[in-house]
Design brief:
Structural class: alpha/beta
Strand content: 15-25%
Shape: globular
InterPro entries: RraA, RraA/RraA-like, RraA/RraA-like_sf
CATH superfamily: Ribonuclease E inhibitor RraA/RraA-like
Largest sheet: 7 strands, mixed
CATH topology: Glucose Oxidase, domain 1
Helix content: 10-25%
Order of helices and strands: HHEEHEEHEHEE
Distance between the termini: 21 Å
GO molecular function: 4-hydroxy-4-methyl-2-oxoglutarate aldolase activity; metal ion binding; oxaloacetate decarboxylase activity; ribonuclease inhibitor activity
CATH class: Alpha Beta
Number of domains: 1
Pfam family, one: RraA-like
Radius of gyration: 15 Å
EC number: 4.1.1.112, 4.1.3.17
Subunit structure: Homotrimer.
Length: 146
């Protein structure tokens, strides 16, 4: 069985001390699964944006090198901050996955990509494109793995 991914429940059961001290956490079961990768992991980059996706798109244009982009979109359900084109670019650039605390669009296109995507749901309206004069900030480029 070597080389098979460890199930989330098994990881939690085997590491109660990491859960107690906050080093190991699991996503709340509010995220929908998109993309062809059901399981993904890697070092994370964390962004905070609100109904604007300029910074998200810029990061996904970089080489992913197996990283996971975590986007705190404030839980907004009023528009999508991620669509099919940036997800396709992320796949091509070697990102392992994207987690969005907000909505995505172009679900069929995203589901065809060999990348893992988690989001609260889908919404047909696109995000604003104001860029840096909006709320977009880089929270962390630390080598934390998810």
């Amino acid at each position: 069985m070597a080389g098979l991914p460890l199930a989330t429940a098994e990881a939690c059961d085997a590491n109660p001390h990491l859960i107690l001290n906050g080093e190991l956490r699991a996503l709340q079961p509010i995220f929908q699964i998109y993309g062809r990768r059901q399981v993904f992991s890697g070092p994370i980059v964390t962004l905070k944006v609100f109904e604007d996706n300029v910074l998200v798109r810029e990061f996904l244009e970089e080489k992913g090198n197996g990283r996971v982009l975590v986007v705190d979109g404030g839980g907004s359900m009023r528009c999508a901050i991620l669509g099919g084109n940036p997800v396709q670019q992320a796949q091509n650039n070697g990102w392992a996955g994207i987690i969005v605390n907000g909505c995505i669009r172009d679900v069929d296109e995203i589901n065809g990509c060999d990348i893992g995507v988690r989001a609260l749901g889908s919404h047909p309206m696109k995000a604003n494109k104001k860029g840096y004069d909006s709320d977009g900030i880089l929270i962390s480029r630390t080598e934390i793995s998810v």
